[in-house]
Amino acid sequence: AAVLAVLTLYAADVMTRQDRGGKRVDECMRPEDRSVPPAAAVKAGEVLEKYPACKAFPLEHVGDSWCDAGGAFNNAECGWDGGDCCFTSRGLYDCKDPSDANFGASSPRGFNYPSPRNPRYATDDRGISDESVVTTYNNYYEFGLSKAISPEALKHRALFDGPWPVEISGLVERPQTIDARDLIALFQTEERIYRHRCVEAWSIVVPWVGFPLAHLLEHVGVRPEARYVKFTTWENHDISKIQKGGGFPWPYVEGLTIEEARNELALVGTGAYQEDMTPQMGPPIRLVVPWKYGFKSIKSIVKIEFVTERPVNFWWEAQASEYGFWANVNPEVDHPRWSQANERWIKTTSRGNDRLPTMLFNGYEEEVAYLYE
Prior knowledge:
Layout: H1 2-16, H2 44-50, H3 79-82, H4 131-134, H5 150-155, H6 157-161, E1 165-170, E2 176-179, H7 180-184, E3 190-197, E4 202-212, H8 213-220, E5 228-233, H9 241-245, E6 253-257, H10 258-262, E7 267-272, E8 275-276, E9 286-288, E10 301-307, H11 314-318, E11 342-345, E12 354-357, H12 365-368
């Protein structure tokens, strides 16, 4: 029985481990995005020629006209992100170059609306899904098993509006417990338009607000021996009838490798549609990893742990024959009960506006394929 269990877990892991290859769909500039100048095209070789000591990754972001405020970019070796972080007209800046006229200038931190839109993720050929649909068609099992959980979640708005301590622990130099709002106040937020692909074969496009997860890792000082990040959400049987009833391995847990957490796409979500998230969307902080199936983007995080062992995430533990750890979007790897080759694209109605072919890594192959080579 033990051997069978191990083989079952292995099969689930293999099922969600992704193959290389596939095509990326070109993105188009939509009319509502024309006020956001596109990022400049930069080649890694050009960056190294100009800044040979620069260790930033990816190098193509150095000097592309958008400030990457993290320490790996915004330093003397990288020319203060190629000068981008002293460029105050783009909305996000943090000028640390003592020779620049804007030295010391920094854009606001914390909840900041409108948050500047990052031009690298400013467009999508499908268009943004209507907020009225995105906020009423949700998976949040703590509030119920249907998609119509928003009324129940809204009853408990006070839970998310009140104090929200987040415990950051494990293999870090600066472990701490900090209220989510104080944590957000440490970082500059930005808007990114991301595709979101549910494992149930439907998809949306959401304008998230948040800050790079890599900045949080830098802030707490991840130790070299840490291999994974484990995220945990809340458990409260007085609020959640589903949790009280049992049947699932509560609380909800998710995980990433350290390399995935440092990837440019990994975002700590703090808002959406240029406002705070409504309860059903997972405030005050959640994970947004757009190249993975939606269940990996855990909501309402209360604990972040840096560990050596791979976390057993919620759905892997609940149903190992159908779910594993990786859960990267892949049209060639079907769910045991349905195809993943196509998806129901939701823009104005939860019934779907179109059937579209699913893209490898949800269309983000260029940004993440190196993680799985």
